[in-house]
Design goal:
The protein is α+β, with helices and mostly antiparallel strands. The protein has one helix spanning 2-27, and strands spanning 30-34, 38-40, 43-45, 48-56, 59-67, 72-77, 79-82, 91-97, 100-107, 113-116, 133-139, 141-142. The chain has one domain. The chain is built from one helix and twelve strands. Strands 2, 3, 7, 8, 9, 10 and 11 form a seven-stranded mixed beta sheet that branches.
């Protein structure tokens, strides 16, 4: 009887942990329509609908980017960035320079921490004031 009760308790907590994990992952998934081609870590991606999600809650700096058809386009290693106030909307921020868009940051609504793609601004940190650099923000929706 004790063994059976112990098994039921273990099963119960396993189910709760699974549900919490799935719930946490679904709130981290964003869907966005990108109307232009863009560059991500040196690779040009076509315009289209993409989903972005944190693959592993224990490693929030890794983001999986997929086309709507489910193909994994990229796993991206990001850096954490912070803002003073929570993000008002889920969004992707691109740097546009020389007519090309580079994925720069990913933000979730209500978060004070976002994800920044380091290669997007490589060599540009000191040049953010340049007139040929523009930030382009696209609103995302939770998937």
């Amino acid at each position: 009887m004790l063994k059976r009760s112990l098994r039921l308790v273990v099963l119960f907590f396993s189910l709760i942990t699974s549900v919490a994990s799935v719930n946490a992952q679904s709130t981290q998934r964003l869907k966005v329509d990108v109307p232009f081609q863009f560059i991500l870590n040196g690779q040009t991606l076509t315009a289209g609908t993409y989903t972005m999600e944190r693959t592993d809650p224990a490693r929030p700096n890794i983001i999986t980017i997929k086309k709507v058809d489910g193909r994994i386009v990229r796993l991206v290693l990001t850096q954490r960035v912070e803002r003073d106030n929570p993000s008002t909307a889920s969004s992707l921020i691109f740097i546009r320079r020389e007519g090309k868009h580079h994925l720069f940051q990913v933000w979730n609504a209500g978060a004070m921490n976002g994800s920044e793609i380091p290669s997007a601004y490589e060599g540009e940190r000191s040049d953010r004031q340049r007139k040929d650099l523009t930030l382009v923000t696209l609103k995302a929706r939770r998937n």
